[in-house]
């Protein structure tokens, strides 16, 4: 019997053939990638196909992970569960996917949804939105009696109510309620201001009618006394008109009666230093200028709002992860695990929004050609919007493995808080965009 010497497994493996040296670190190559630095042996300078592949791979890492990630993302919670289980190499990192999808989704939204000439694109011509500055209040300011003011006020408010119902029924526009409410507030304010002016005139005329000629004879002396009476001085020593001087007789909401002006009448906050007050007035001036631009060109305001949403979402993802941590405090999961769940849930929401934007644009394009097909596309978009909260509920149930009752309660509580925070963050970001230089 011949004895056989069995070597170690390492000795049994034949050495890998060398393919030259790495161009980056001069290490011996045993394949298409350097084992020392990871550089590929393909030279993008010499091969056009490799150059194109490198461009896409650097952005998407198109080695199959993007397709596996999107496929598993369609199943509620599958991508998050697999990633947390350690199967990370098959998926795109959630933070990278979230950044790419947030930019892509709101770019699609800004490109497919248009607001032009105070109406949504595709709306019927001539259906303009009533504004605040273009209201004809001449009937109120020219009224000679309180009854005329009230009659004109009721007429304008009735027209606004009819227009509001018509737009809400035929072509709902985001933010229209705020504009309509501002218009109604202006009408009521102008009417109350005119009524107060007429009552003051009546009160001043009543003593003259009662005294008759003596009051008329005393008028020149009163005028002389008022002319020779010194003006009141303010705290800074500057002359200010007397309290019984000439009152403003015109409308309230005009450029001549505005209280704030960044240069002529700036805001002064006593506890702020001068440079901070200057900054506040500068931002308010930008906001006023941009507000006028956004009203004249509503698409600019809509684009500013869409541009503010990615920043709001980016800030809210860690907040949502913190809410998940508090809701599942006794699960003993790390905060970064909740961050993965928050990122993948937002990635699905962004994908669903992108699909909704594209379907909405396609439905509007086919509305005049194939109405039935446009209606079907609209139903698909509505179905996607309805599926979004159901998806999040199923994902929460699959990841955290609690009963349906507790999962539903926590889902509703988290959703309520998150919607409030999202609206607040989007408003802050929009105000910040409004205060940027023109």
From TrEMBL:
<feature type="transmembrane region" description="Helical">
    <location>
        <begin position="340"/>
        <end position="363"/>
    </location>
</feature>
<feature type="transmembrane region" description="Helical">
    <location>
        <begin position="415"/>
        <end position="435"/>
    </location>
</feature>
<keyword id="KW-1133">Transmembrane helix</keyword>
<protein>
    <submittedName>
        <fullName>DUF3667 domain-containing protein</fullName>
    </submittedName>
</protein>
<feature type="region of interest" description="Disordered">
    <location>
        <begin position="199"/>
        <end position="248"/>
    </location>
</feature>
<feature type="compositionally biased region" description="Low complexity">
    <location>
        <begin position="207"/>
        <end position="227"/>
    </location>
</feature>
<dbReference type="InterPro" id="IPR022134">
    <property type="entry name" value="DUF3667"/>
</dbReference>
<dbReference type="Pfam" id="PF12412">
    <property type="entry name" value="DUF3667"/>
</dbReference>
<keyword id="KW-0812">Transmembrane</keyword>
<keyword id="KW-0472">Membrane</keyword>
<feature type="transmembrane region" description="Helical">
    <location>
        <begin position="304"/>
        <end position="328"/>
    </location>
</feature>
<feature type="transmembrane region" description="Helical">
    <location>
        <begin position="369"/>
        <end position="394"/>
    </location>
</feature>
């Amino acid at each position: 019997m011949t004895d056989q010497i069995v070597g170690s497994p390492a000795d049994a493996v034949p050495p890998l053939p060398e393919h030259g040296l790495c161009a980056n670190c001069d290490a011996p190559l045993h394949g298409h990638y350097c084992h020392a630095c990871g550089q590929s042996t393909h030279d993008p300078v010499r091969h056009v196909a490799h150059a194109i592949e490198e461009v896409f791979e650097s952005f998407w890492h198109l080695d199959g992970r993007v397709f596996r990630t999107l496929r598993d993302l369609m199943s509620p919670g599958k991508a998050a569960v697999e990633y947390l289980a350690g199967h990370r190499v098959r998926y795109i990192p959630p933070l990278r996917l979230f950044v790419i999808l947030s930019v892509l989704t709101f770019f699609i939204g800004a490109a497919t949804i248009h607001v032009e000439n105070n109406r949504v694109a595709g709306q019927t011509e001539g259906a303009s939105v009533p504004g605040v500055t273009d209201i004809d209040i001449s009937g109120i300011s020219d009224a000679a009696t309180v009854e005329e003011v009230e009659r004109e006020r009721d007429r304008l408010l009735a027209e606004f109510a009819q227009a509001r119902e018509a737009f809400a029924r035929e072509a709902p526009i985001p933010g229209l309620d705020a504009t309509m409410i501002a218009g109604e507030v202006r009408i009521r304010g102008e009417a109350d201001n005119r009524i107060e002016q007429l009552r003051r005139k009546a009160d001043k005329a009543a003593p003259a009618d009662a005294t008759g000629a003596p009051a008329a004879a005393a008028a020149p002396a009163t005028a002389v006394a008022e002319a020779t009476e010194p003006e009141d001085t303010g705290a800074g020593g500057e002359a200010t008109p007397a309290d019984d001087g000439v009152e403003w007789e015109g409308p309230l909401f005009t450029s001549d009666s505005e209280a704030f002006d960044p240069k002529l009448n700036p805001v002064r906050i006593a506890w702020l230093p001068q440079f901070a007050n200057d900054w506040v007035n500068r931002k308010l001036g930008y906001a006023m200028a941009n507000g006028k631009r956004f009203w004249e060109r509503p698409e600019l305001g809509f684009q500013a709002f869409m541009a503010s949403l990615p920043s709001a979402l980016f800030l809210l993802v860690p907040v949502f992860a913190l809410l998940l941590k508090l809701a599942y405090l006794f699960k003993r999961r790390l905060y970064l695990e909740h961050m993965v769940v928050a990122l993948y849930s937002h990635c699905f929401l962004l994908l669903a929004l992108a699909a909704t934007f594209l379907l909405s644009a396609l439905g509007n394009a086919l509305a005049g050609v194939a109405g039935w097909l446009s209606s079907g596309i609209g139903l698909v978009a509505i179905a996607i919007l309805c599926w979004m909260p159901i998806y999040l509920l199923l994902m929460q149930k699959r990841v955290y493995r609690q009963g349906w009752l507790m999962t539903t309660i926590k889902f509703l509580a988290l959703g309520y808080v998150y919607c409030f925070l999202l609206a607040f963050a989007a408003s802050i970001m929009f105000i910040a965009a409004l205060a940027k230089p023109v």
